Amino acid sequence: MRVTLFDYGAGNLHSLSKALTTVPGVEVRVEEDPVRAVDTEVLVLPGVGAFGAAAARLAPGRAAMRSALERGLPCLGICLGMQLLFESSDEGLGQGLGYFEGRVTRLNARRVPQMGWNPVDADRTVSGAALEIAYYANSFVCRAEDASIVTAWTTHEGDRFPAAVRRGAVVGVQFHPEKSSSVGVAFIQGFLREVVS
């Protein structure tokens, strides 16, 4: 199974790559070109970084990547990667992929960024791999226009926002499964097995 990490210059690639290769037969490659990144069986948009800079790296291949997702290319977007699946962000200029309708806004809390473990409520994102708690590191959150795409929620200081979204084989998670111990790795394994089976 070929899994491609799209490198927009700031992603947490090492620990994520390590978590992905816990599934037997997975070959991970890192690709900086957004057009070449979609020549794969599974696309991963990693977390860490700023929306504006990542959107700029994505811009030359935005249409190609969006088209590949619409055609059914499995994709996992993590933290910033999830935010790039939406239309735009208050964090910076540029367009996301617009695969999910909605905007990314600043977390409405006194303590920002949110750093550490937080509950994942009613997770139904990946069959057989539901999370109850996960590790977060974020200042911005996705505000989905269609609540039916939200497959899990979380709350930080009274601000309730999507912990995970899904449409078809495209999943976005605000938490970092690669930093969420064995339950996070099980979530990644469950996603890979489900989308390529």
Account of the 3D structure:
- This protein is α/β, with parallel strands linked by helices.
- It has one domain (2-196): 3-Layer(aba) Sandwich (Rossmann fold).
- It has six helices and twelve strands.
- The longest helix has 16 residues, at 181-196.
- The radius of gyration is 15 Å and the shape is globular.
- The relative contact order is 0.17.
- Heterodimer of HisH and HisF.
Secondary structure elements and pairings:
Elements: E1 2-6, H1 13-20, E2 27-31, H2 34-37, E3 42-45, H3 51-58, H4 62-70, E4 75-78, H5 80-84, E5 88-89, E6 102-106, E7 114-119, E8 133-138, E9 140-144, E10 150-156, E11 159-167, E12 170-173, H6 181-196
Parallel strand pairs: 1-2, 1-3, 3-4, 4-12, 5-6
Antiparallel strand pairs: 6-9, 7-8, 10-11, 11-12
Précis, in short:
The protein is built from 6 helices and 12 strands. The protein is of the alpha/beta class. It is found in: Cytoplasm.
